[in-house]
Write a structure and sequence with these properties.
This protein has 3 helices and 3 strands, in the order H-E-E-H-E-H. It is an alpha+beta fold.
Amino acid sequence: MPKMKTKKSAAKRYSFTGTGKVKYKKQNLRHILTKKSSKRKRNLRHTGILSSDNVPVIKKQLLPYG
């Protein structure tokens, strides 16, 4: 049986913490920044933690070796 391949699009978007949680970069900080408040832009800089409901989907289907 051949090796399972990692979904590279998911590998670029998600990473795991030491405790097994899934980190991701928040969206909406690329362009059209003038209408967004400073508080909103500041909060978008931090990484997000994926909901625990979606972690098995990412682990099993998108990142088989994660």
